[in-house]
Design goal:
heterodimer; A: mainly beta; three-stranded antiparallel beta sheet; 11 strands; 0% helix; 54% strand; B: alpha+beta; 4 domains; five-stranded antiparallel beta sheet; 7 helices; 35% strand
């Protein structure tokens, strides 16, 4: 599923391919992704950021932990508007993906494109780390 | 170029403020603090610190004869309808400066001003007319002369502390804002080291080495057990109730004593303030009620007796079993004493200007239940049990605003007292290679192929 928000001058698209079926990874696995950028012809990309991170969802304020971060600004390294990219990183032991009641932990790969001017575009692709079953409410209090 | 929007969309359906406008407002706030600090610092340095420094370093020494004495009066309007008058001793002296004789009233720092005229007169009496004394004059303006030198350290401290604090808070906020300007949230999070140092309100969470977002467990294993390896620290909700009632009773009755002393002094002076007495009656009632609640909580906390829990190993791993020892002290009979293992989620969020924390128990398993427990002063009740962390369960997790916590909970029902609960936190690690027993992925979670793209 790909969802777009705030269509600007052109709405790019990043097709992401994970090396594992169903995007299911285990702790300390190597994660390898390949992506293809489409739909931003005529626009110059001045930087690309690759990141592998976890973030929390649910009732609490969002927390975020970046496990892998790479920023490409060298024009020679930047892909052209319709090129592909790839990166690889070992995954950590924790935190594992978790589908809780008021706290959820999600892992994702993000590719962020920075265009000339102040516009940027982020493409986020969720994957699962570990195999924790979802939680169910027993009791709650505030 | 378009202006950033005031509101942007967060995950789910909640609207949140625009980050750009937030950074702009933050920068404006910290910039104002920085400017205010620089402005007040400059005022204090030029008005107080610099003149005092010049007197001590640039003024030249000479001898003078005291010709006359007097008090300099300064009157300042204190709105709306009063004035403040201060007094400062002044001496008219004759002295030689730049090879010529001068006569002038001595000057001095404005800190010598006092609202107590008698004190100023006593200081003036220390000088004798016609006597000689050492003086210091300004070589650039020889008519300016002082008879005393030195530093008012508290004023220097004040001139450094107050503007210094404003400059530090404003400057660090501005640097933090500038460092994060134009950076993505991933970039900011990846280079959070200096930003956290610059943010006095940041609450970084410490993680176990090699296990990001898993809390450290050092505080849970620093007490050895009597039978098993570790004695777990206790978190008792009743203790917080006791502290709350104690603080309330103390503060409320302190106010009550102040009011009562005022009313008593009035009474001794032959005046009766009926309004004050009428106020004292309900205050006294609440004060007595607070003391009764505190004593009741204190008796309850001490009457049941201490609960101790020892465990054979720590931290814990999913799929493994651990011996625990439950010990209950005190006297009397406890109808039932239940030990359970629980998994609790905790989320902290802002609601308006309040910060709220919500907890939800998402998994609970009874470990052991004991009935008709009798404890005596010298023979505590002891029982062993085995706790198993289910295979494939979530590990302990902590971040700035969210947590998943494992805990052992002892709930007791004493014969003559209300029920009590005592909580013993434990840390569960992700499964290690030996204990890894992957459970089948539950159907319906469907998140593995989720993708999202946002442009701004």
């Amino acid at each position: 599923m790909t969802k777009g928000v705030d269509r600007g001058p052109a709405m790019p698209r990043v097709d992401m391919q994970f090396d594992r079926p169903h995007r299911q990874h285990e702790p300390r696995d190597q994660i390898s992704v390949r992506y293809r950028i489409e739909g931003c012809e005529g626009e110059h990309i001045r930087a690309i950021e690759h990141s592998v991170l976890w973030y929390t969802e649910g009732k609490g304020e969002e927390d975020l932990g970046v496990h892998f971060f790479q920023r490409l600004t060298d024009r020679a390294l930047l892909p052209s508007a319709t090129a592909t990219g790839a990166f690889t990183t070992p995954l950590p032991q924790s935190p594992l993906s978790y589908e809780g009641v008021i706290v959820k932990v999600r892992w994702c790969v993000r590719v962020r494109l920075f265009f000339e001017g102040s516009r940027d575009f982020v493409s986020e692709h969720v994957f699962t780390l570990g195999r924790i079953p979802p939680a169910q409410l027993v009791s709650s209090r505030t | 170029m378009r202006l950033p929007r005031f509101f942007s969309k967060k995950r789910g359906h909640r609207r949140t403020g625009s980050r750009e406008w937030g950074v702009f407002g933050d920068g404006l706030f910290h910039g104002t603090l920085l400017l205010a600090g620089l402005f007040f610092g400059a005022l204090l340095v030029s008005g107080v610190a610099a003149p005092e420094w010049r007197i001590n370093h640039a003024f030249l020494e000479s001898r003078c004869t005291i010709l006359a004495k007097g008090l300099a009066r300064t009157t300042v309007a204190d709105l709306p309808a009063a004035v403040i008058t201060t007094w400062r001793p002044c001496l008219r002296v004759r002295y030689v400066a730049n090879e010529s004789v001068h006569e002038s009233w001595s000057d001095g720092p404005s800190t010598e001003n006092t609202p107590d005229r008698e004190a100023a007169l006593r200081r003036l009496a220390a000088w004798t007319l016609g006597s000689e004394a050492t003086c210091w004059y300004d070589p650039a303006a020889p008519q300016t002369v002082v008879l005393q030198r030195g530093y008012n350290w508290w004023l220097w401290l004040l001139s450094l502390l107050l503007p210094g604090a404003l400059v530090l808070i404003g400057g660090s906020g501005l640097v933090r804002g500038l460092r994060s300007w134009g950076k993505s949230e991933e970039h900011r999070a990846a280079s959070a080291g200096l930003s956290e140092l610059l943010d006095p309100l940041a609450q970084p969470t410490s993680a176990a080495p090699g296990y990001p977002a898993v809390p450290v467990w050092d505080d849970l294993v620093n007490s050895p057990g009597t039978m098993l390896r570790y004695r777990l620290p206790i978190e008792s909700p009743e203790n917080w109730t006791l502290v709350g009632f104690g603080l309330f009773a103390l503060l409320w009755n302190a106010v009550l004593v102040v009011l009562a002393v005022g009313a008593g002094l009035d009474l001794l002076g032959g005046r009766i303030d009926w309004w004050l007495f009428a106020l004292l009656v309900p205050f006294l009632g609440v004060g007595i009620g607070g003391v009764i609640m505190f004593i009741r909580s204190l008796v309850f906390a001490t009457a049941v007796g201490p609960t101790q829990l020892e465990i054979a190993d720590h931290p814990l791993f999913p799929g493994r079993r651990y011996d625990v020892l439950l010990a209950q002290g005190g006297t009397g009979t406890i109808r039932s004493l239940a030990l359970s293992l629980e998994l609790e989620e905790q989320a902290t969020f802002r609601q308006g200007t309040d910060t709220r924390t919500e907890q939800a128990v998402v998994w609970k398993q009874s470990v052991a239940v004991f009935h008709e427990v009798n404890a005596a002063p010298h023979t505590r009740f002891e029982a062993r049990a085995v706790v198993e962390i289910p295979p494939g369960s979530m590990h302990s997790f902590t971040s700035s605003h969210n947590a998943v916590r494992w805990r052992l909970v002892v709930r007791g029902t004493p014969e003559h007292w209300p029920e009590f609960s005592r909580i013993f936190p434990v840390v569960v690690f992700p499964p290690d290679d030996e204990a890894k027993e992957p459970s089948p992925r539950p159907a319906g979670s469907g998140e593995a192929s989720r993708s999202r793209e946002v442009s701004r």
